[in-house]
TrEMBL record:
<dbReference type="InterPro" id="IPR036865">
    <property type="entry name" value="CRAL-TRIO_dom_sf"/>
</dbReference>
<protein>
    <recommendedName>
        <fullName>CRAL-TRIO domain-containing protein</fullName>
    </recommendedName>
</protein>
<dbReference type="InterPro" id="IPR051064">
    <property type="entry name" value="SEC14/CRAL-TRIO_domain"/>
</dbReference>
<feature type="domain" description="CRAL-TRIO">
    <location>
        <begin position="1"/>
        <end position="113"/>
    </location>
</feature>
<dbReference type="GO" id="GO:0005737">
    <property type="term" value="C:cytoplasm"/>
</dbReference>
<dbReference type="InterPro" id="IPR001251">
    <property type="entry name" value="CRAL-TRIO_dom"/>
</dbReference>
<dbReference type="Pfam" id="PF00650">
    <property type="entry name" value="CRAL_TRIO"/>
</dbReference>
């Protein structure tokens, strides 16, 4: 949408993370795990999407948070993060035209009702297309869960009867890396066609 609006390809984004009202309650436990998953998702699937991450108004415990998330970040991701205290504006206006920076951050942009946080720019009402819906009951009906102990292996066999079938999977590991392979068996010849560590 943005590429169409601007008339040129927009292939990466600048992320501004304003932590002014963040506390230990909002940045600990489950929320930290969510951030770790977002980081992994972006690194693995969209490595060039994020151009730069500017963290402004970091709270006093930011160092602890950063150390907690650091193991999930690749060196190339760590290079993208820049942390600023209250001296962020000069750097911010070098990256974003001042009329696009919300007024509460020092720019000129306000909503039509003079709200300096620009909530009207967020699309609160656009509906998610129905083809993207996936009901939790349908996920549970098809999902299988296995606990695989260190050094053990688990094998699943599927009969593919339709040409151009698509095989998809999702797995999580808690403590040790998984070695993952897909073999195709045409009558009796098993050939490894895919391997993932």
């Amino acid at each position: 949408v943005l590429s169409k609006e601007k008339g040129k390809d927009i292939t990466n984004i600048l992320v501004v993370v304003d932590m002014i009202k963040c506390t230990r309650d909002t940045l600990w436990g489950p929320s930290l795990r969510i951030w770790a998953e977002i980081i992994e998702l972006l690194q693995e699937n969209y490595p060039r999407l994020v151009k730069e991450v500017l963290v402004i108004h970091p709270p006093t415990m930011f160092a602890e948070i950063y150390l907690s998330l650091r193991p999930y970040m690749k060196p190339s991701t760590l290079e993208l993060i820049k942390v600023f205290g209250n001296n962020y504006f000069k750097y911010l206006e070098q990256r974003i035209p001042i009329h696009y920076i919300p007024a509460y951050l020092g720019g000129y942009k306000c909503d039509f009702d003079n709200n300096q946080q620009c909530f009207e720019d967020l699309n609160w009402v656009e509906q998610v297309p129905q083809w993207l819906y996936l009901m939790s009951s349908s996920i549970q009906a098809r999902a299988q869960e296995f606990n695989i102990l260190a050094g053990a292996k688990h094998v699943e066999e599927y009969m593919v009867t339709l040409r151009n079938s698509l095989l998809s999977w999702e797995f999580y590991h808690i403590s040790q890396p998984l070695f993952f392979a897909i073999y195709i068996d045409t009558i009796s010849d098993k050939t490894c066609t895919f391997k993932k560590e």
